[in-house]
Amino acid sequence: MENRTMLTDLYQLTMMQGHLMNGSQNKEAVFDVYFRSLPFKGGYALAAGLEQVVEYIENLSFKEEDLAYLRSLNLFNEEFIEELGSFRFTGDIDAIPEGTPVFPYEPLLRVKGRIFETQLLETAILNLVNFETLIATKASRVVSAADGGAVMEFGLRRAQGPDAGVLGARAAFIGGCKSTSNVQAGMRYGIPVSGTQAHSWIQCFPSELEAFRAYARTFPDLCLLLVDTYNVLKSGVPNAIKVGLELEAEGHHFLGIRLDSGDLTYLSKEARRMLDEAGLKEAIIVASNDLDEETIFAIRTQGAAINAWGVGTNLITSKSNPTLGGVYKLAAEGEQGDFQPRLKVSENVNKITNPGIKKVVRFYDRAGKAMADLIALEDEVFDEGKLLTIFDPIQTWKRKTLRNFKTRELLIPVFRDGNRVYKLPDLQEIQGYAQKELGTLWDEVKRLTNPHRYIVDLSANLFELKQQLLLTIHNDIKEK
Ligand SMILES: Nc1ncnc2c1ncn2[C@@H]1O[C@H](COP(=O)(O)OP(=O)(O)OP(=O)(O)O)[C@@H](O)[C@H]1O
Ligand SMILES: O=P(O)(O)OC[C@H]1O[C@H](OP(=O)(O)OP(=O)(O)O)[C@H](O)[C@@H]1O
Ligand SMILES: O=C(O)c1cccnc1
Asked: How many CB atoms lie within 10 A of CB 271?
């Protein structure tokens, strides 16, 4: 497992030395990880990256060469470097499991512990959670546009570097992709690997037919032929049909063809007709070429005859929305378990933080559909037998009364006193869980364009606490 201890911003280390020098290193802090707006103008995001956060925490330790490098910067004193030498995370982490639909302002992770430790974690946690959550969300949109057609992740060559290719393939699988072309991701995470051929294979042979036959000889039962090197309907599909029939005559199953250019709707319909007429009704048609959720949705609704989609660049780079702006904000600080809520003020009301140690409660109706989430204080209880009126924390007149609800707390314990108390699910389990979880959201929340906004409110107690703190800060400033 990779040691990512040095994957941090310099200022985390300077602040840590500052705490050590000021005697505040043992102060306890609670940080929330959350994002403020949904990517893709979508209706939800899918949480991902927790497994990498767990690995990061479990491998946190500065090696001799790390300490030597830090010493060489001539910024840090020996007392601090020595302290880093025995650095371990000894705090608590609660997190929303990977594959859960999540919404703005909800703490996806809550980190509690000595400020000396919790400050260091910000950069790596955000790096991991922001990227994987973004790609899992993008993949989920692409998969939903494919409406049951398999989506194969093809992006490694265009990913923003090797790590993004591998972790992106993992996140894409959480979002519902069926397979990846990325062999390292397949090996590391047990993702099914799949693929076809490149144009170079076809070009290497004197003719397209010979290229197809050579591939069919090598992989008679894994034969998906790329048909657009010369001319799809006049050459590629007729040659693929010849080879497909030869394979079937020998008792093999011909898988199908891949289209990688041109009008994918027209070509797939024509190719389907030709394959069917030749008796290759089971042969599938895979499409690729700069696809994303919008093109897939358009092509599918035009009536294309496409069974599976190969999606690379737009998915792995999240091209239409390349970042998720997750932040790591201090919500409480204290000593010996006695915490005081803390708040960050901003002129921009969306940037004022939510104070205190919080939890996220999801409210379901009797049919199991998610109705709303509340960000609440840790010790609050919501009685399932009672009515509950919730309200928008900004437009407070917007109210909704929940009745007959079931509740579920989304944050679950992952580390206690530095020890892991959470069993990491395997990736197949996470994918299945994500699919089930998406089934609890209304279609209106999931639709790709102009979705309904899912309700995420603050509990009355948290709202009250926030108002009080804002008022106190405001009055303090006025008096100065
Ligand atoms: N029927 C369709 N409706 C909407 N978009 C489509 C349809 N068919 C293909 N597309 C998309 O249109 C774009 C076409 O790309 P482009 O203009 O580069 O043509 P091309 O066929 O890839 O040409 P080239 O031969 O250079 O590869 C791709 O993003 C593709 O996914
Ligand atoms: O289009 P993407 O969604 O990124 O999917 C991956 C693309 O990569 C391959 O092409 P190649 O690298 O040869 O490039 P090209 O076909 O785009 O020229 C493949 O044939 C797809 O077209
Ligand atoms: O296997 C394929 O067809 C493939 C793999 C990576 C990128 N494009 C296509």
From this structure: 24
The verdict on 29 and 118 lying in the same domain is yes
Write the CATH number for 264.
3.20.20.70
ipTM of this complex: 0.96
Largest CA distance in the chain: 90
Choose which residue among 299, 313, 315 to substitute to test ligand 1 binding: the one with the highest number of ligand atoms within 8 A of its C-beta: 299
Q: Select from 260, 281, 316 the last residue of a domain.
A: 316
Q: For residues 110 and 97, give the distance between their C-alpha atoms in angstroms, rounded to a whole number.
A: 12
DSSP category for residue 96 = P
Number of domains in the chain: 2
Together in a domain, 368 and 435: yes
Q: What is the DSSP letter of 211?
A: H
The tens digit of pLDDT for each residue in 17-33 reads 999 999 999 999 999 99
Instruction: Identify which of 154, 223, 290, 309 to mutate to test ligand 3's pocket (most ligand atoms within 8 A of the CB).
Output: 154
- Cβ–ligand 2 distance for 98 under 6 Å, the answer no
pTM of the entire structure?
A: 0.97
Task: Give 3-state DSSP helix, strand, coil % of the chain, rounded to 5.
Answer: 40, 20, 40
Is residue 310 domain-shared with residue 349, that is, in the same domain?
no
Q: Find the domain containing 402 and state its range.
A: 10-136+321-479
Cα distance between residue 84 and residue 66, in whole Å = 10
Last residue of a domain, one of 294, 316, 338: 316
Pocket of ligand 3 (CB under 6 A): 154, 181, 195-196, 288, 310, 312
Ligand nearest to the CA of 145: 1
